[in-house]
Amino acid sequence: MTETTAPIDRKGPPKPNDALSRIGSTAEPHEMRDPFDIGEALTALSLSGEPVTVFPSGWIEPLLARIESVDPELPDFVIDFTGSERPPAGKATLVASLGGNAKLQFDLDQSWKPLPSNKMHVAAEFPPSCLVLNRRAARRVETPVGVHYLATFRIKGAEMELPLYDFSQSGVGLRATPEQCFGLHVGKKLDGVRLQLGPNLVIMADLEVRLLRPFRTFLLGEQVQIGCSFSSISMQMQQTLERFVTSRPAARRAAAR
User: Fold this and answer.
1) Which of 2, 49, 85, 226 has the most beta carbons within 10 angstroms of its beta carbon?
2) Taking a C-beta distance cutoff of 8 angstroms, is the pair 99, 136 a contact?
3) Is the Cα dihedral 153, 155, 157, 159 positive or negative?
4) pLDDT at position 110, please?
5) Where are the beta strands (DSSP E) in the chain?
6) What are the residue ranges spanned by the domains of the chain?
7) What is the C-alpha to C-alpha distance for residues 213 and 227, in angstroms, rounded to an integer?
8) CATH architecture observed for domain 16-134
9) ω before 14 within 30° of 0 (cis)?
10) Which residues pair with 152 in a beta bridge?
11) Residue 254 in contact with residue 210, Cβ under 8 Å?
12) Cα separation of 238 and 228, whole Å?
C-alpha cells in the first residue's frame, strides 16, 4: 500500500461535541489484525480529518486529535493534538468513526513525546490490532459487470457521472479517481442525485458522503471508494428500492461503508 495524495477536503479541527464514547462492553465488534487493513483505516482517517477521541488511562475527560499522516512502510502514523493537549506517558484508548457507520478503537502505550518539528504532533507505530464495530446491517447488492449502474449529480457547477459498485436500502457505494473527488468530503450533501440501477430502474435521491477510502487496482490505478447514505428519498422510491434489493440473488451482508 502506498500513501495517497488524493485531493479530498479534510474536516476542520475537532470540536468538543465530536467526542465519541468507547465501544461498549456488550457490543460485538470484530478484531482487525492485518497491518494492511489497519493502514487503510488510518489513512482514511488522515485523508478525511475525522476526529479521534483519546482516553488516557485514569482520565475522566477525553482529548481530541486527528491523524496527520500515515507511513504504511514503517509502519507508523502521526497524531495531531493541536487545540487540545498531549496525553501523559502511558496507555490510552483511541476511538474514531469510520464513514459514520463503523467505530474503530485501539490502544497505544507510549511516552507521547512530541516530534521535534511540532510540539503537538506525536508519532506512533501501528497498533497490533483494532476493534471495529459495524453499525450497518442493510443488505448490499454488488453491481454486475457490463451493466449501467451510475450516479449523476452536480458539484461546483459541473455534472459528475460516477459508476456504482454496490447499493443497499440505506445507501450506495461509488468509485472515482482522486481527481474526480475534488470538492467531496465526509459530510458533503449531494442533492438531486440520479441513480440508474440497471436498464429499467432510475431513482432520484439526496445523498450524504459518509466514507472516502483510497485504494489501488491493477487495471485502473489509484481509485477512491465513496460511501454514501440516503439523506432524503421518497417513500415510493424507498419501497421500490427495497423490493429491488431483496429480489437480488447477489444480496449479502456488508461491512461498514
Assistant:
1) 226
2) no
3) negative
4) 96
5) 30-32, 52-56, 63-71, 76-80, 90-98, 102-110, 121-125, 130-134, 139-142, 149-155, 158-168, 171-176, 189-197, 202-217, 221-232, 252-253
6) 16-134, 139-253
7) 8
8) Roll (2.30)
9) no
10) 161, 194
11) no
12) 15
Please answer whether residues 103 and 30 qualify as being in contact, where contact means their C-beta atoms are separated by less than 8 angstroms: no
Maximum distance among all Cα pairs of the chain, rounded to whole angstroms: 60
DSSP 203-238: EEEEEEEEEEEEEEETTTEEEEEEEEEEEE--HHHH
Beta bridge partners of 197: 149
Global pTM reads: 0.55
Per-residue cell: 14: 475537532
SS (H, E, C) 162-202: EEEEEEECCEEEEEECCHHHCCCCCCCEEEEEEEEECCCCE
pLDDT in tens, the chain (257 residues): 444 444 456 888 899 989 999 988 878 788 888 888 898 899 989 988 999 999 999 998 999 999 999 998 888 999 999 999 999 999 999 999 987 678 999 999 999 999 999 999 999 999 999 999 875 545 566 776 656 789 999 988 889 999 988 887 778 889 899 999 888 888 889 999 999 988 888 889 899 888 888 877 777 788 888 888 888 777 777 777 777 776 655 433 333 33
Check if 16-134 and 139-253 are the same fold. Answer: no
Looking at the chain, how many residues does it have? 257
Cell of 21: 464514547
Please tell me the CATH superfamily of domain 139-253, with its number.
Answer: predicted glycosyltransferase like domains (2.40.10.220)
Residues 6 or more apart from 84 whose CB is under 8 A from it?
Answer: 14, 63, 64, 65, 120
